[in-house]
Amino acid sequence: MKISTAAIIAALTANSANAFVAPTPRASGLASTRLFADTLEKASTDTAEIAKKFQEKLDADEKKVEEPVVAVEVEAPVVAAVEEPVAPAPIVEKDPTLDPKNRVQVGRYNDIDRSLAMPFLKRPTKLDGTHAGDVGFDPLGFSEDYDMYTMMEAEIRHARLAMLAVVGWPMSELNAPNWMLHGPNHLAPSVLNGFDPLLSSPLFGIFGAFGYFEYKTSLRKVDDTELGKKHTEDMANVWKYGVPGDYNFDPLNLYSMFGDTADARKAMRELEITHGRWAMVGITAFAAWEALTGHQIVENSMFFHPNLLLPSLVASYVAFSAFYEVKNTDQYLFRVEMSSEGEARMNNLQRRTANLSKDALEYSKVAFEYAKVATETTIETSKDIKEKYDSINDNYTNYALRNVRKD
Length: 407
Description:
Layout: H1 5-15, H2 29-66, H3 142-145, H4 148-175, H5 197-217, H6 226-234, H7 262-293, H8 309-323, E1 324-327, E2 335-338, H9 340-406
Helix pairs in contact: 1-2, 4-7
């Protein structure tokens, strides 16, 4: 904001009134005129200087007013944030029916397209790994045409009979009297080997008893027994029929060896059906071998007579399995590779061997020092004995010669 020059001059003139005081009467007119002129000139000069200074002050004030105001940031005191209490996450209870320990789960192999037993074939639709022993083996497609429960019941019955037969067959040929066996080579009685008249009646009676047992138990009710109730609960996610082959028979309580849970019982059924399948293969091989050769299965066999071959083969297999594994891939049918556990065992064995070698070297050094000391001691002792012997011998000789000289 600027002030006009006239206003500034007026203000300065008012402040310099002494410049306009009239001359005293004692001064002459000319002197008064000159004095007035000088005074006026001086007043004008002073007024200009004062106006200049005043203008500079106004400009300075105006510039100070027009300068931008610089905001000074003042740090506010830091106040510790108070954490609000976090509400606990809601506890989601797991559905007990989806726990494998409570119930058998459906579709273990749903994400697998190929059969585990026959990788060159697609997995059968109904063989999804739900049941014990399911490895996708059904090359004839029986699972598509027949009832699953009925086929599983038939398989487990044949498996259990085969496990009994594969033990009883060679035991009969090893221990039974010849009159209970068939033919001149004393073979176990069978459909392919034949039956003697003396044994026909009891064998037919045994087969009849098995048939009657099949008839009485084929439509049995199993959901009211102790094991049946557990099986019904175990298989509730699959069907309402329980487990095929359930006769509520477990006198030694082996069924709960892995635990009293659904997955533990399924694991025991896996073991049973696996052993039963191998037994069915074995008993078929026994019957075929004796029918073709006419000789006992136990004859000249390393499995049934004391020998070193079988233990050697078993030890070799165990040693091989401890370090190597056989892999079947889409590129190689049979490939032997060292497993990760085998590498760890090999490194551990090498480390122990190195430690044993190091210890043996240390022990050998100590033994050598002992042997050296013992040898030196033996030599010194031998020298002392020899010196004493020589001394005794010399003394005896001198004594004997002295007596001779006297004579």
